[in-house]
Request: fold
Amino acid sequence: MVQSNTFPVSRRHVLQASAIGAAAVVVTEGTLPANAAQAATAASATAGPTALGASPTDLGPGATAPVRPFRLRDVTLGDGLLQEKRDRMKNYLRQFDERRFLVLFNNQAGRPNPPGVPVPGGWEDGGLLSGHWAGHFMTALAQSYADHGEPIFKSKLDWMVDELAACQAAITARMGDGGGGEDPEEPPIDRVPGRFGTGLRLNGPSRAQYGTLPQEAISQLTDFTIATWVNLASTQSWSRLFDFGQNTTINMFLTPRAGVAGNVPRFAITVSGSGGEQRIDGTAALPTNQWVHLAVTLTQNTGTLYVNGQRAGRNSNMTLSPADLGNPGNRWIGRSQYGDPYLDATVDEFHIFDRALTEQEVRSLLDSASGSTGGGSIAWYRFEEEDGSTIRDASPNGRDGGIVATQSGGSALWIPTHPGYLGAIPEDAVLRLGPPRWAVYGSNAATNTWAPWYTQHKIMRGLLDAYYHTDNQTALDMVVKMASWAHLALTVGDKNHPAYTGPITRDNLNYMWDLYIAGETGGANEVFPEIYALTGDAKHLTTAKFFDNRESLFDACVENRDILVTTPQTNPGRRRPDRLHANSHVPQFVGYLRVYEHSGDPEYFQAAKNFFGMVVPHRMYGNGGTGGNYPGSNNNIELFQNRGNIANSIAQGGAETCTTYNLIKLARNLFFHEHNPAYMDYYERGLLNQILGSRADNTNVNNPQVTYFQPLTPGATRSYGNLGTCCGGTGVENHTKYQETIYFKSADGRTLWVNLYAASTLTWAEKGFTITQETNYPRADHTTLTVNGSGPLDIKLRVPGWVQKGFFVTINGATQNVTPKPGSYLTLSRTWTPGDTIEIRMPFSIRIERAPDRPDTQSIFWGPVLMQILGNPGVGNYRELSLFRHLKRDGDYSHSAITHASTTAAGDLLFTTHGFTLRPYYIGDTQAASSYFRRVEPTIVFGSIDTGVPNHKRNDSLPNYDIPVSGVPSPGTDGPTFLDLVWDQAPFANHGQFVSTVTETAEAFVRAGTFTEAEKDLIVSYAAQSNKELEPASTWDVEVQARAQCTGANAYLSVNARNADKVPLTIELITPYGSRTVPGVAPGKAAYQAFNTRSASVSAGTAIVKITGMVDGTPVTAQIEAPYDATSC
Reply:
């Protein structure tokens, strides 16, 4: 065994680790054993930590569970949507210069940097979150190497590990210089007389160079006002009053003097550099040495610049807003994204609002600090501090900023407190989170902190992945040293600080983690149990438990008490906000499962399971995301919404991608222990919608092109980029590990779980099996598994919970007589022989999901895929759709309510309704689209028969929120409509069954006092008369076949549709490679076309054949899907 370095023993009791192992469990179809948690606990108590060896053992999620993952290298992706997204990200990883990540680490280590190599940018700019992207990048490189063994990924990764090892050694070597851990001296930055009270003097005689604001001060604003006083001390051009952005390409700024004719003030916003700026220019140069008030407002497409309360410029063609900047890493007062001079001026009363002030409100700011506005609703910086580098936020939101001071001279390198530290920020920025300083989140690099353990986790995770996937022993040695440092940091603590009073206590730890953002750990607790298992050193398991958030949340989750959002009166924590930050807490529970897997302590499993149930489905949007604002909340879209709040929390910029990254990890890890198919249903939803949709469908070698937020409001657009942000980092991981959940195995090797349908090949060397899956899912609804290997094996096929039209299985062409329940697994127990094939078809259907708190707010799905309605209905408006009049007795929306329109060149199906186009959510571009619509069904209709009776709602007391929502009565009187309840029972076997359902539902409404007896009788009478109206369209007798074949080196897709009916038909053949309509196909004749794919290969897919004929003088259209297999020429 390779031993870790030994450091001083902490005063904490060393916990004895239980041995961990695995036992097989039997899972019945569609059900969960009542004793699953107990069985999993027992399974986790029979084996010990694994010694280090020449061949790395992956001790990641599920390594000790009854169901376990395969290694990434055991599964390769085939052609399809997942591969397309993955390849774009791998191309970025190949090209991006990894040396950029080392610049900030070298700065902390005192090592030289190669000339001309810039820092990555965004949050990787030397600020308090610097270093996390190096960890993400290492994980992405390791995963990419595991995918196909491409040498470039390993060579880049090996170089990073070696360089980081040198940094770690250099930092620890400085311990011999004495000292360490001193509290940095606050720079003497005095305030000066301002317009009201005191102001901040930038440059000139002041040491204050520029101000920095927290990300929440600007990110995701649409309508806004920024207003401030400025007293210019010089006539320099192009200096910035403020400049918020990512770089010189993506930014928005206000300069008091543009270097153009007249030196007028200018506001500009761009996402394509200076050539794409949308500008508002003033009319005259601003004076120097006197106070001037400037304000910029934006509402919808109109931006206005005010000077001293008077309109000085207007642009009515503004299409950009701060939300289009993504998540700007640089948020500066007095500094430019370019190399322009720093602002030489005094600034006072800097307001940021989330709306456009009226002209009268802007003028009121001339008379007093807040005028008639009450102060900035997002942030308000008054500069009333006596001195120091902190800018206090006078709004209730606590968004303090910081001041960057000029340096008086070179400073000596800091001295570490404990050995083994590695980071791109000083060790002090981590230690100050705890006693005696209790640093809080903010922009002051000298005194604040920003999720320091989050950054430590990402670096450690990257090193562990380098070890697991590339057998890099140096990475393992480094991460063990980091873990030992962490143990000291969380036990001995900040021992060299003058105010140090002794070791860190459990109560101290609770106080640390019960803190917004600064206490965000990023799931740090998930790496230490693995390090314990790798080394046998029990202190690392102890360290993992140090991260327990036991101030309030851990115990509440064990007891299944939902306190993710509280009122001020019920808030149980000393420092926690009323609304918890979603991505701060989801990864904690991923870590709790790791503690459970390596300790067997069941309360960690119970906490994770119950927490997941609080989020899914009660806070889950259609795309799988969570988090957003709602009326009366505090303008922070990264926080959880109150339980059950979907319709009233659909935020302009909610659903942070990072959170879904962690939620699907949590669902995956829970499934290893409790094989509940609902976990996989959620995993698929999150993966195929928010995660796939988070990657732009373009190639970019300078930027990962992923989303931070994914807005769900009507007509919202997505912004792609995010180099240096948290979601950019998890983004490079997301798209390089798609294969990790397609297949699982039982611990005893007797069972293979097929969880996802994706083109892929599994090589199960230990069993001698290779499984090849050919499919174009989710663009198609069928897949073929080819088994190569001999012997008995149970293969469990996931039957998705959304299946409505059956789940059909054949083995070697023989239909299996099975009727599995949606939301279950179907077991095929068989002794397999090489070449056996399993064909699966699960016909997709259009289905509607209603928001639980407002049922008329709905989303549309095609199988597992959320379908967005293209276009922008206007600010605050929803598309309104009426669909019930299109339904037939089978309840199938796809027949006429929402119909297939066309297929993109990539094979994505497009639908249409009410003249609007619907497309899959996973398509990654910036088109405006709506994920939700409003259902408008004013009267009870049966086809074209309108009863005239209002389509009343059943009073389900909706919404019924646990936390008040401003302006929304709760409990309310909302609920599903009469027609909702009737059609929820579809399909109807015959018209009598339909009329019976209408009758029963109407009688229930009468009993509730919603309908009168007369209205009920009228409804039932019309329902009885609607037989012809509701009769499903005839199924035309047409024989359809689609086949991919080769002519020379070129692949063709041929589609043949023979009319076996008795009447002429119009037949339309639709494929990804073209379409053809043949009118008047006589009985016995066929429509045929061989479509040239202009390629040497064809992926498996589905051709669509639409058949139209006349019934009683009315055209009736039916649709048949014809699957075809892949072929290569």
Notes: The longest strand covers residues 1101-1111. The two ends are 52 Å apart (CA to CA).
